[in-house]
Prior knowledge:
Layout: H1 7-14, H2 17-22, E1 38-41, E2 53-56, E3 61-64, E4 70-71, H3 73-81, H4 85-96, H5 105-132, H6 138-146, H7 151-157, E5 160-162, H8 168-175, H9 180-185, E6 189-190, E7 199-200, E8 205-211, E9 217-224, E10 233-235, H10 251-258, E11 265-266, H11 270-278, E12 284-285, H12 294-303, E13 308-313, H13 315-328, E14 339-345, H14 349-356, H15 358-366, E15 369-370, H16 371-380, H17 388-402, H18 408-427, H19 481-498, H20 507-512, H21 518-530, H22 538-546, H23 549-556, H24 558-561, H25 572-602, H26 609-636, H27 647-659
Parallel strand pairs: 11-12, 11-13, 13-14
Antiparallel strand pairs: 1-2, 2-3, 3-4, 5-8, 6-7, 8-9, 9-10, 14-15
Helix pairs in contact: 3-4, 11-14, 14-15, 19-21, 19-25, 21-22, 25-26
Amino acid sequence: MSLPPGFLDELRTRTSLTAVVGRKVMWDQRKSNMGKGDMWAPCPFHHEKSASFHVDDRKGFYYCFGCQAKGDALKFVQETENVGFMEAVEILAGEAGMEMPRRDPQAQQKQDRRSQLAEVMEQAVQFFRLQLNTQGGTAARAYLAGRGLTGEALERWQIGFAPDGWQGLWDHLRGKSVPEDLIMAAGLAKPSSKGGKPYDTFRNRIMFPIRDARGRAIAFGGRAMDPNDNAKYLNSPETELFDKGRSLYNHGPARTAAGRDTPLIVAEGYMDVIALSEGGFASCVAPLGTAITENQLQMLWRMSDEPVIALDGDKAGIRAAMRLIDLALPRLEAGKSLRFAIMPEGKDPDDMIRSEGPAAVQAVLDQAMPMVKLLWQRETEGRVFDSPERKAALDKALREKIRLIRDPSIRQHYGEDIKELRWQLFRGNRPQRSEGFSLTGSSPKGGRGFRDGARPPWRGPGAVLTPLASTRSSLLAGSDEAGLARAREAVILATVITTPAVVHEFETNLERMLCTDPDLAALRDMVLRYGIDAPERLKEEIEYSLGPHALENLFALRHVAIIPCLRKPGDAEAARLTLAEEFPKLEALRGLDAELAEAEEDLSGLADEALTWRLKQAAEARNRAVRSENEDRAQYDVGENGARLDREERDAFGALLDRIGFSEK
Length: 665
């Protein structure tokens, strides 16, 4: 839906940013000046005790000096309410008394239907609540009491009971003139295969309402009272309201509590969340009967920079933790990670709260381990590494996992931590070296392969390495290839922004694109976020989120301005040809750098046949890459420090090959 000119400006004029933000924060009365609209508070986007979150009501912008979050009232509503741009506009327009422009009839009809479904769900909540207090709910009440839930807790969580009948809820809703199609669409009933009346989805189950972040009932989770039931827990089917992979149990209250500097706890089920919350851990959520999805992971990170995954101490809980590692590794960012608190074997948070009290759970949470430790545990626990082959297999597995991390800095730190753990396992109490992550298993002391028997000096932990004079001009010592990579990334982003219709074809390539430049990384994220789902709004969303200068700066780059396909906006074929040429060159460049970096690390130990083969391949690849890059040098104009294989570099590289005993013959 497009908005008429001036609508957003008027909306921002009518909206008080202080009032919008004030719903989520507690203002610091000492630093704030209400009369001037100059307000300060602890940031709602990250955990802190000081008031570093600044709101300038006159300018209509906020900024956090801690986490650098910034934006206007619309951006704030989007981030805190987990809604899209147009939904944020609707929320603020309603508060400001502005009538939204007329929507497309089909879109309006769809929104009206969602509202109707939400009303039907609320009627079902009340029906189940009443049934819990009837004679038919006696066993359910006894079970809940045995789990330590008081009447007040049952009311807070609106827990109910679905009677053991085929059409109890169906007849109740039809008696209130609820249309049959709405009951079916809400997932509350299923059609009969025998041609009879539809029957209730939930029967003889304790019912837990599932609400979205705004508090609307969107689904149910039901626990079977019959111990012989095939499904102990049953969730509503996916509907127009409910997407299981994009929902979290207790999302809204947990998000509010997480904004008060309390750790976000992720448990496995409804009863764990309820027990934790009743025990004083207000910021807790649970996925809905499945492994955590990518969407749920991003939702968790919006609430907390480092959620604590509190899993059951059984095999299923451990397996869930291990699966989550593989999901999270490629998505790690600086300051965004996970910690894992594994409950004692055979227990879950609910068990511990009831048997040992909140203090016991807190003790486990305090011992939550970082993800790198759990990754190491997964790859080593229960295995014996008594041969070079087994050690090499471990090295390979760890390298493959660490390569999934896109952020170079995080990848480096993971490598360093893994290296330390590896030395503890294989070298016992020997001193540990401080060089970068190396998984060759090479000895730090002596060995052939070093000219004249020279050995690299032994350095203690924390020592700073400096390049030898003979290697400073070597290809392995680095060059300005980073500038060429940034140039290619800029061309790629300019191409897809100009012709967003091709984004879906190159989505995987864009996801793998590192973008070490933060401005380019921000553009890449916007392209991936809107380029597929809303390509017609891509430029508008970029300008709104990053400011108008983001695109101006990109297209003003000299090497971007001369790209032919940019002169034909919307020409998908021209854009495809450009991207098909740029992505392989960029990935070859990145891959070559990674291979050479690994080879350089491995040179700290003994050279072996595999290493010399890799260096030979790297040298050949470098020669091919350099020839290709030199052809593009004038186009990209990265300067005199580019990756040019001049005589000095060839000599240095040759000396390096000689040093490790490699001969081209």
